[in-house]
TrEMBL record:
<dbReference type="InterPro" id="IPR005765">
    <property type="entry name" value="UPRT"/>
</dbReference>
<dbReference type="InterPro" id="IPR034332">
    <property type="entry name" value="Upp_B"/>
</dbReference>
<feature type="domain" description="Phosphoribosyltransferase">
    <location>
        <begin position="7"/>
        <end position="208"/>
    </location>
</feature>
<keyword id="KW-0328">Glycosyltransferase</keyword>
<comment type="pathway">
    <text>Pyrimidine metabolism; UMP biosynthesis via salvage pathway; UMP from uracil: step 1/1.</text>
</comment>
<keyword id="KW-0547">Nucleotide-binding</keyword>
<dbReference type="GO" id="GO:0004845">
    <property type="term" value="F:uracil phosphoribosyltransferase activity"/>
</dbReference>
<protein>
    <recommendedName>
        <fullName>uracil phosphoribosyltransferase</fullName>
        <ecNumber>2.4.2.9</ecNumber>
    </recommendedName>
</protein>
<dbReference type="GO" id="GO:0044206">
    <property type="term" value="P:UMP salvage"/>
</dbReference>
<dbReference type="GO" id="GO:0006223">
    <property type="term" value="P:uracil salvage"/>
</dbReference>
<keyword id="KW-0342">GTP-binding</keyword>
<dbReference type="GO" id="GO:0005525">
    <property type="term" value="F:GTP binding"/>
</dbReference>
<dbReference type="Pfam" id="PF14681">
    <property type="entry name" value="UPRTase"/>
</dbReference>
<dbReference type="InterPro" id="IPR050054">
    <property type="entry name" value="UPRTase/APRTase"/>
</dbReference>
<dbReference type="InterPro" id="IPR000836">
    <property type="entry name" value="PRTase_dom"/>
</dbReference>
<keyword id="KW-0808">Transferase</keyword>
<comment type="similarity">
    <text>Belongs to the UPRTase family.</text>
</comment>
Amino acid sequence: MAKVHILDHPLIQHKLSLIRDENTGAKDFRELVEEVSMLMAYEVTRDFPLQDVEVKTPVATMTAKAIAGRKVGLIPILRAGLGMVDGMLRLIPTAKVGHVGLYRDPETLKPVEYYCKLPTDVEERDLIVIDPMLATGGSATAAITFLKDRGAKSIKLMCLIAAPEGIKEVQNYHDDVDIFVAAVDDYLNDHGYIIPGLGDAGDRLFGTK
Ligand code: PRP
Ligand code: URA
């Protein structure tokens, strides 16, 4: 069974509380989502292997450490996943970014695909699917299936807030995908919103309603 990692670093938790606050406007919301994503990227990449490299400092030569040739792909689920990309690229600047466009049909709550553009070599990359919200889990499950159908072998999922229902759904279909979240909230309401959550992540990021 894939692991669920709850990233409880105080900076992540503090910023997440600000993100949740209904009085936080779009500009601060965007900046905070970016900052939390950067902090989470630090934890998501914790298992990247290191290799020895020779480095010449101004005073000596030494054997130092470098990340061992990892090729990373960030896969934001449009739209809201876009808000997490820049923060992650600050820490993993060589990552390629692939986009998967999915929206939830408001009636059925089922994901509808409308866009996809991936790096050509997804099968060689460590992919990190990013989306602020894991609610029913339908969107993340569909995005991961989509990536696997195109040959992806190494996939992690990173979200700010998850509902227990969403975690279960992803684990049911993809028990090889570790899930990284800043919080697991209480439940989903009748409209599929995470309670207490933060509201509609896409609308809050982009100022739409
Ligand atoms: C939100 C969110 C996830 C999805 C989660 O996107 O960003 O992609 O809902 O819900 P699920 O786990 O029940 O599938 P939304 O469909 O609102 O589209 P948007 O990002 O374009 O606003
Ligand atoms: N999508 C959101 O943006 N928020 C939720 O609470 C659930 C799905």
